[in-house]
Amino acid sequence: MKITEAANALNTTPRTIRFYEEKGLLHPEKGENGYRYYQEEDLWKLQTILALREVGMSTEDIKDALEGEDEINTYLDLQRSALYEEWLQLKDMIKTVDDMLAKQQENHLTTEDLFTLSNQLKTMKGLRSSWQDQWNFNDQAASYDQNIKTTGYRFNVHAYYHDALAKVVELVQAVPGEKGVDLGTGTGNLAAKFLSQGIPMIGVDQSEQMLKVCGEKHPEIDVRLGHFLSLPIMDDDVQFIVSSYALHHLPDEEKELALREMDRILGAGGRIAIADLMFEDESAKEAVLAEYEREGNTEAVEAILDEYYADRSRLIRWLEQRGFAVESFQFTPILHILYAQKP
Ligand SMILES: C[S@@+](CC[C@H](N)C(=O)[O-])C[C@H]1O[C@@H](n2cnc3c(N)ncnc32)[C@H](O)[C@@H]1O
Fold first, then answer.
1. pLDDT tens-digit profile of 40-96?
2. Residue 211 C-alpha to ligand 1 middle, in angstroms?
3. Residue whose CA is closest, atom 25 of ligand 1?
4. Which bin fits 183, alpha (ψ -120 to 50), beta or left (φ > 0)?
5. Does pTM top 0.85 for this prediction?
6. Does 161 sit in the ligand 1 pocket, CB within 6 Å?
7. CB within 8 A of 246, min separation 6: which ones?
8. Architecture of 137-341 per CATH?
9. 119 CA distance to ligand 1 centroid (A)?
10. Which atom from ligand 1 is nearest to the alpha carbon of 186?
11. Ligand 1: which residue has its CA nearest to atom 23?
12. Ligand 1 binding pocket includes 137 (Cβ within 6 Å)
């Protein structure tokens, strides 16, 4: 098939096809007369390229997807995550413009308001893009399940791990017909408990390698690359949200944005159950740290200060301000569960 016929068959233009050739995405056979001839395989490839361009993927990413070792869904997952981030960014921008217009209609829009509103937007953008995986979860993925079994540390954050996960399942009381999401799912240990009850689960994580292990262990989990601050899930899409040992990787101001994101994806009457490392409040944190210091347990002090254990009272306050009914449970001074129900 010649270039014009190929273009007609796929509803595109010869110019577009030539562009993909120049970018090294297509390598059609060339006849002695200099014409390009497109075989069936070239047409399949071209169709894939056009589809991936349609969802916004760059030509470089498409090239990697076609030639790289990873499967194409790895790239699609990346693309979905990027699109959600852009979408949320746009939503925030629209909301800011709406707020500006509302003030203006009341004749109250001052320069100071403009500055404050645009600054809020800027802060949000900054928070969404600033998080970095300083613990390198990709490297931890292969040995993660083994490591949580490890005992014998002076400070073992995974004491009561299984009890905490079981309590989350007990609190949520999922029923058939519901769909849930596990945020920071890691290797999927918590999400899997719901699968065994016949509940479909999405597992979100920022680490590709964690998701790979999770997908291999539990192919039924719908794994999605994504961030606590821009969840790759539509509004009101799930009936419950669970998370274990993950939220403490976000600084406090980001935790609040993460809770807002959870509120966005959770349907009315939905539940959130978070098992995580946190303190009852600031004074409890000081007391626990002082006790470890007194014991000379530097391992514990360093581990705590290396992460962002939440102030539980702050999380509760924020959820209650949003109308959630909140209960909390404590396993140890550093391991708690928050259970919240949306109105
Ligand atoms: C300690 S592991 C816990 C995994 C699992 N939930 C469990 O209980 O075994 C923390 C997980 O949270 C993920 N995570 C940390 N910060 C995240 C963020 N900001 N967005 C998405 N995932 C995050 C990490 O990649 C990692 O897989």
1. 989 999 999 998 998 888 999 899 888 877 778 888 998 999 999 999 999 999 999
2. 10
3. 207
4. beta
5. yes
6. no
7. 183, 184, 186, 228, 276
8. 3-Layer(aba) Sandwich (3.40)
9. 29
10. 27
11. 184
12. yes
243 contacts 274 by C-beta, under 8 angstroms = yes
Give the ligand 1 atom nearest the CA of 275: 8
Of 34, 66, 37, the residue nearest 49 (C-alpha):
66
C-alpha distances in Å from residue 78, one per residue of 65, 87, 135, 139, 218: 11, 14, 20, 19, 20
Query: Of ligand 1's atoms, which has the minimum distance to the CA of residue 131?
Result: 19
Q: Give residue 181 CA to ligand 1 midpoint distance, Å.
A: 13
Q: What is the pLDDT of residues 278-327, one digit of tens each?
A: 999 999 999 999 999 999 999 999 999 999 999 999 999 999 999 999 99
Domain boundaries, the chain: 3-67, 76-130, 137-341
| Burial per residue of 10-38, b for 16 or more beta-carbon CB atoms within 10 angstroms, e otherwise | bebeeeebeebbeeebbebeeeeeeebeb
Ligand 1 center–CA 44 separation, angstroms: 38
SS3 108: coil
Q: Is 88 in the pocket of ligand 1 (CB under 6 A)?
A: no
Q: Report the topology of domain 3-67.
A: Multidrug-efflux Transporter Regulator; Chain: A; Domain 2 (1.10.1660)
